[in-house]
């Protein structure tokens, strides 16, 4: 038959035509209109304006199915999880249902499951009115974190630490579809991996060396893939197996991305869990560290291609990723390429002449990304400092005229 692919990524980052070549089936690609010209080996390629928020994607999927049916839907990105679930339920197609999708996108439901099952997480509440927020602050105090229930990439997340900031938030109006939780002091870690045929198959653990909210200060985010021998790798793997896997409705075949706080008093608290691969080029770090491509394996499993991965994954190399931040102004100089042999991937996202009029809006609102390697954590940290220095010396911004 055929396979429908809902996809926000550019062609060079996601190779469905290569992965599915042996199936000899028609591939239908729905993507952002910016990427249409780069997808060649597909029976249908349809581009959509502002793809992530375009409801025509779902309608066109139903129209396409009525003319040339497809047997499954592949959706690997956060923005496509819910819409794929709706389409599957409507057309009675196997795969992740809307109910399952909703659990991994709605943070209130996600944390309600945690709370119900005794999984440690920050104190939280949905907020639909200013009085609900008032009651939460009266009971739990400041600081607090306010964010969309279905947000991604830390977009529109606010930390409120003072009464003045809180009053300003009230003045602007409490938006619909938001939640509040107590602010957690500590280090953020992330757990990524694979579930195949309902079995836990692989786990990688990463450490954010900068806050996921540093983008709000136009700062970059540096993530390190930890060695399996690292104590935190072992603790977090056990945390996932004991506190997350038993209680959440994971699809039969999926990747996962789980963020966990390590608090100052040595507790582990669930932040979020998603039924997708990590962003921030962490997936590429994992591919280089373990020679395991999460997206490729997950996609193949969903279409029925036999998968074989090692029972015990061995880390081949220590890797990290750096998201290069934006500044406000006109970009007049940027890194063309890095002179370091240990930089294994550099992806610029903009060109000289790019103009930016506001602060970063999420963790992937960047001018470029770097993946690099080292022999151990200390060497990786040293190389991170070298990258920052080189980027600072070779990136300039010019003030915009009013």
From TrEMBL:
UniProt keyword annotations, A-Z: ATP-binding, Ligase, Nucleotide-binding
Domain ATP-grasp: 111-303
Domain of life of the source: Bacteria
InterPro entries: ATP-dep_AA_Ligase (IPR052032), ATP-grasp (IPR011761), ATP_grasp_subdomain_1 (IPR013815)
Ligase keyword on record: yes
Record's protein name: Acetyl-CoA carboxylase biotin carboxylase subunit family protein
Organism listed in the record: Paenibacillus oleatilyticus
